[in-house]
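User: Could you write out the 3D structure of this protein bound to flavin-adenine dinucleotide? I've included everything you need below.
Assistant: Certainly. Input first, then the structure.
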Amino acid sequence: MNPTSPPAPDERTKDFGREVFARVDRQGAVLFSRSWLEDKLMGLGMHDPTLKVQLFRFVDTLPYLKDSGEVVRHLSEYLGEARHELPWWANLGTRLIPTGGMLGGALAWAARSNAERMARKFIAGSNVAEAVAAVHAMRTRGLAFTIDLLGEATITEAEADHVQKQYLDLLAGLTREVNAWPEEPVIDRDDRGPMPRVNVSVKLSALFSQFDPIDPEGTTRAVCRRLRPILALAKRTGAFVNFDMEQHSFKDTTLHVFKTVLTEPEFRDWPHVGIAIQAYLTDTETDLHSLLAWAKTERKCPVWVRLVKGAYWDYETVIAAQNGWPVPVFTKKWQSDANFEKLSEFLLANVDWLVPAFGSHNIRSISHAMATAERLKVPQRRFEFQMLYGMADPIKEAIQSLGYRVRIYTPYGQLLPGMAYLVRRLLENSSNDSFLRQGFAEGLSEEVLLRDPASNAERGIRNAESKTQTGANDMAAATHATNGTAGSHSALRTPHSAFKNEPLSDFSVAANRSAMAAALAQVRTELGRTYPVVVDNKPLPAAKTLDSVNPSRTAELVGKVAAATVEQANAAVASCLKAFDSWRDVPVSDRAALLRRVADQFRARRFELAAWIVLETGKPWRESDADVAEAIDFCVYYAAEMERLAAPQHRDVPGEDNRYFYDARGVAVVIAPWNFPLAILTGMATAALVAGNTVILKPAEQSGVIGAKLMECFQAAGAPPGVVNFVPGVGEEIGPVLVQHPDVALIAFTGSLKVALAINEQAAMTPGGQAFVKKVIAEMGGKNAVIVDADADLDEAVKGVVDSAFGYGGQKCSAGSRAIVLSGIYDQFLGRLVEATKSLTVSAADEPGCSLGPVIDAESRDRILKTIESGKKEARLVHQTDVGPLASQGHFVGPAIFADVPENAGLAQEEIFGPVLSVIRAKDLDDAIRIANGTKYALTGGVFSRSPTHLEQVKRRFRVGNLYINRKCTGALVDRQPFGGFKLSGIGSKAGGPDYLLQFLLPRTVTENQMRRGFAPESGTGE
Ligand SMILES: Cc1cc2nc3c(=O)[nH]c(=O)nc-3n(C[C@H](O)[C@H](O)[C@H](O)COP(=O)(O)OP(=O)(O)OC[C@H]3O[C@@H](n4cnc5c(N)ncnc54)[C@H](O)[C@@H]3O)c2cc1C
């Protein structure tokens, strides 16, 4: 190398890195303070993902546990589940854990105080005074700070108001105090002059309980309303505000809020603001370019950018896998590192507009920023490094000693919300790929740690990739293991069947939102049309039509749907019967192909169909989209299922061939409800069709237009004449005609218990001329319960119960209409539940921010309101949202909550099919399970608990068709959660499951004697 030329950039990075390492005492730099829980068990946990999951779960639950007995029970349960992973001495220890007495008490105390100590390592204090003391101590060590207020998830508007107030109080109190302290030039000035001393970090989702990227404008308005006073006070008092970045789905809305509010005249000339940007996202480079253009040309004033890699890697990868969405993050650690370096360079090159704060503990990433700044001649004090409180203290000191400004992200708050933060930090530190772990616990060499991450791209290797998957993957796999499912990585990647659910639309993606808005606008131009009865693929003249109106806006006529006459219904049966003879002999592959073409129709018309659902049935965007996705799933799943069932099944013996196979039943009448207007009608119809039956589609009166759209799709997909006939009309008029018709072989029904039982009775009759007993498949209602255990995560439980009870106005068969809450948590739960319900946005379903739309029609509304009125005699009405002017716009009923509902009250026993929730108190888990099982229904159920043994009991003893643990009890997916119940919830087996099609089929066996005069073919081929 020429001695006069500057060293290559990477060499210079390594020079800085070696210098930092030289100033860091790697032996002294421990990650965790010495204590039993951390040192012994964390040490084990580092190397054992299953144990790590159990430990972190225990730590997360700890603050909720009220007495020492509970602490010890949970510790023993969590460790017990990972027992097989422990060395013998620890294994023995878990068996000997005392559950009571002095020893038990001492153990509980030790666990609690160790966890608290661990939390205090990362959290600067539980109140402002303690936080101020901590930042004062940091300033005396020459370290700047940014304060973050830890909080529970904001699920109520009252909580959002409280967060705003806390920030205002914090700013007022802190500025007064800190500005009175003597100046520390190292941190209070940059290369050009004084800088704000007070610096706070804000999470925008904490400022609005309904923060939802589906409605960026509504969310921005609500967030800005609470944000402006905070920004105004900060500006007035000379403080700095940084916007934290949360999960990927919130990113665009966060950026939108940032740009919107900071372009307002009041704030556009204020440079003391910044935003965190995550280098682990693949689309961050584009965001930074757009941020630069905005700062430079629109705002004309610089902002800060805190460049981090990102704290939600596990979450992002799991959510993407669960939903079948593209993974938004890089999947290899070196890619995030390399992107961090690329973006560091971009920021330093544009330092006049985007001032960088590098948020990293990785000496390679930090050194790269130092070397790049030197090369681009950016003054050392123009930018800064930021690190987390309690982490990597020796690195902070080393960097500071090199003359750079170092700012410490300092969270403070109560222990309860603090645990979630603590677990995030523990996860980060213990991940296999963490720089700190590799550098300070695993002792990798400096040369390896300082290697250029981009060089991995060329070499195609990375130790973490080949040796071990990332810590996060370990965690996910281990979570499966402790949940009793397959515990290997492959269990995550290999689906149980080849079937894949149609992904739901991700409405955090702008293109999906615009497509939905455009579809609604387009559909609105097509309202008011007339839809005929269709028999033999031909429209029949309509003698009478039924008006279908938009329940959100009753002035809007969605369409006029023919009311079939008795003659037309009979004609439809005759047409089906005629078509049956040939359709049942159409090869299964052709019948399956028809279903797949119907799915293609749905895909091509995805947003349009969703828009019809929004307008005709008052379902919000997300749920309408899910309805179409489920309809697609039914087509694809049943096509594959029929192909599976059609595979030849032989039981041949010498001289005798035996074949077992399935035949169709005949004419099927499909009577569907309005609450899943496309999915259920499609599901029942396609199951019947692919099995070789011919089908009469009878949609609900309230969703006849969507029925007609389905008929259009069948025709467009090439359904032969008579194979599917469309017979809308008044249930009471044509229902009995179809059900009792002697040529109808099968009735598939979903709807109310009363109608189902009537159909079952009518179908059981065998009038003269009918030489078979009709088959009835019926899905009925439920009085579904969600049990909330005393140790439940309240953020999750409240949200889960609200979603279960009020999603689509409680009009799903699976809706959770009873919350059975254990005494220990009852009052706390009820308080937050009421506030969370008050915070829901009740609006027309076509508005993207709608959390609760109307109920289906006036009759439903009146019935529900009457039930609420009479319910007041049985229990305490603790909340009912006033719907205000919406009452005259559509069929709105505000969500209502009854508390202290007796378990046998009508409110707790009868299905209401509306937004009415009964909260019932239970003494203990046994009591809760007994109450939960104590109705005539057994459809769905839910439980929120963090006790492994309680969960085991609930799994065994809470007898329902679909049980959901620690999540909402609605939203079953085809194949993943086949749906349906028993008792008076259903006759037949689960829709979207492996037994469903069998109900539409007749099993047959053909036996053929192959012996002729004492000889037979060598072996039966059967073919
Ligand atoms: C001051 C400060 C403020 C912060 N604010 C935020 C914030 O607002 N939002 C936020 O999300 N985070 C924030 N963080 C957290 C930050 O994202 C993590 O601390 C950081 O990612 C750890 O990176 P590192 O460079 O210190 O460590 P390293 O060990 O070098 O990197 C670890 C990071 O690499 C990434 N990673 C891990 N495995 C993989 C993989 N298999 N493929 C791809 N990438 C992988 C992850 O982002 C992981 O966190 C902040 C951190 C600091 C210091």
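The pocket of flavin-adenine dinucleotide is lined by residues 244-245, 276, 278, 280, 306, 308-313, 329-333, 335-337, 359-362, 365, 386-388, 409, 428, 433-435, 470 (CB under 6 Å).
User: Perfect, thank you.
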